[in-house]
Design brief:
428 residues; globular; cytoplasm; Ald_DH/histidinol_DH; oxidoreductase; 16 strands; G-glutamylP_reductase_CS
Amino acid sequence: MTTLSPYDSMTPVTRAAYRARAAAADLAPLPRAAKDDALLAVADALEVRTGEIVEANARDVAAARAAGTSDSVVDRLTLTPERVRAIASDVRDVVALPDPVGEVVRGSTLPNGIDLRQVRVPLGVVGIIYEARPNVTVDAAALCLKSGNAVLLRGSASAYASNTALVRVIRDAVGGAGLPADAVQLVPGESRESVRELMRARGLVDVLIPRGGADLIRTVVAESTVPVIETGTGNCHVYVDADADLDMAVEILVNSKAHRVSVCNAAETLLVHQDIAAAFLPRALDALADAGVTVHADERVAALAEGSRATVVEATPEDWETEYLSHDIAAAVVDSLDKAVEHIRLWTSGHTEAIVTTSQQAARRFTQLVDSTTVAVNASTRFTDGGQFGFGAEIGISTQKLHARGPMGLPELTSTKYIVTGDGHIRH
């Protein structure tokens, strides 16, 4: 009689999770040098095999265009040789970062002589569920490997060819460097059932991180039995205070909105103090028009838009909560800083808000009252980014308040454990 292995009755997703669990156990004790060598091999392989990656990506892009996908989503999906080189550079940036594993968070000698240390350790197996952003495939793999974690990657079906090619390159490089190739796996299957299986793999997967639109994030948070680090959408605000420098305000606004519209740290709402609105808005609207931005304006903004080059449409209640990810911005005039804060509290996704002001008092009050992951003073919202913060490529931007908040770098991919060292100590 043939004895069936337990693996024979497992689904492909469950088998992948078991392999990841074994790989995570092998990764956890590895020294930094071993992980860094593997990441350098990954970076080199991405550049050497760029043609293979771009060719696979072109199939995804063509299918997306044929399906009528929006330009902003196609932009996120697209990989060019330049973008692949930039992704490889990001991997090398991760190599240069300190390894958080083994870091002593706190420690002391207790009165009874026991040595107590709290040290960082890998989370274990990290699942990433994300939409049409193939660069996330490499970012997530690099950060997870550096922090000693295995990763299960479940990208969208629209990027399946791209992600398959990228994971193949990464696994070849990781295995060639002597690390377990199963530390990086693409979750098998393109159906929603494979996503559900990943979300229910409690005990095999230690944490899930969703990256994408509001619907994806809500679904993962609501349906997952695996603990979730919630990453949020980016309904980001720029507030121009009564004491703002107008030149600075225009530059910050245009950069926040139009530098790259398809990303979560792009500004989606402009709020302007009534005392400066007449002087600021005509200039700001013309600058937005030059950048190709349509303004969804309240009545007071619309009244000041006469004679400007801007394309102005009437704002609806839905505009205040919309993450456009396009060349659109909602705009309103507010009576005071406190009214701006009130508006932000009502509509924000908790991502990033910016104030432009020369008043230290206004800046201090704004930063105290606004409760988002990042509050910028006289700076673009586009700086909310792991790379810009010096963390290396980020795994996502958490808008929750437990464990990790804001751009998530290497330390946020670790947990801790306590090391208790005694000399025959027993408890009385």
